[in-house]
Amino acid sequence: MAIVLIGPPAAGKSKIGKKLAKLLGKSFIDTDAIIVRDHGAITDIFREHGEAHFRRIERTAVIEALSQDAIIAFGGGAVLDENTQRDLEQHIVVLLDVDAESVEGRIKADGKRPLVPDIDAWKALVAARRPLYERLADRRVETANRPRDEIAQELADWVHNGGAFTE
Ligand SMILES: Nc1ncnc2c1ncn2[C@@H]1O[C@H](COP(=O)(O)OP(=O)(O)OP(=O)(O)O)[C@@H](O)[C@H]1O
Ligand SMILES: O=C(O)C1=C[C@@H](O)[C@@H](O)[C@H](O)C1
Ligand SMILES: [Mg+2]
């Protein structure tokens, strides 16, 4: 069973996932990184082939990731695929959440997400996805104004104490 981190763009899935994997002694997989490895930069894929194509290759990356006993950071929109939604029933799913005010600086800082050029785009996208994120998650963790090490440690304790397997 994998532990899968889902949630809004820039919530911290990749950074916290890496820390959590280290704490649990598991490998870390990022579906965005698989896509970049196999197809090049995400912005280029969106620009040259469009979102539908991106979602198809993202689904392939998700299948590869979920076949491993690992900590997996999903891309923000990976959960949109209905087959992926069904697959997640077999895994531990953690929603890393963040509010618009707290995420604004993070969005501005890197500017590498084609679907979220600014905070208004982020708000609209996350509002549309929020019910889905919440439905799929076994646990929700607020990441705003909290050190990433602390969040990773809290999740590692939850897994060690068996909470991940009973909720
Ligand atoms: N708890 C936090 N406090 C402050 N900054 C954070 C926190 N979590 C993440 N960040 C910063 O926000 C940015 C996005 O983090 P990260 O890449 O881990 O997000 P993500 O959820 O993987 O995003 P994406 O959906 O685009 O893959 C990074 O610059 C990171 O340093
Ligand atoms: O939220 C989204 O739809 C995305 C988030 C990123 O992780 C990347 O997967 C890509 O930029 C799309
Ligand atoms: Mg990420």
From TrEMBL:
- Specify the protein name: Shikimate kinase
Cellular localisation: Cytoplasm
Q: According to the record, how does the cofactor bind?
A: Binds 1 Mg(2+) ion per subunit.
Name the predominant localization: cytoplasm
Q: Which UniProt keywords apply?
A: Amino-acid biosynthesis, Aromatic amino acid biosynthesis, ATP-binding, Cytoplasm, Kinase, Magnesium, Metal-binding, Nucleotide-binding, Transferase
- Top-level taxon of origin: Bacteria
Q: Carries keyword Transferase?
A: yes
Q: What is one Pfam family matched by this protein?
A: SKI
Which positions bind substrate?
Answer: 32, 55, 76, 129
Gene3D superfamilies reported in the protein's UniProt record: P-loop containing nucleotide triphosphate hydrolases
Pathway field of the UniProt record reads:
Metabolic intermediate biosynthesis; chorismate biosynthesis; chorismate from D-erythrose 4-phosphate and phosphoenolpyruvate: step 5/7
Record family assignment: Belongs to the shikimate kinase family.
Cofactor entry:
Mg(2+)
Origin species, per record, is Gryllotalpicola daejeonensis
What does the subunit section of this Swiss-Prot or TrEMBL entry state?
Monomer.
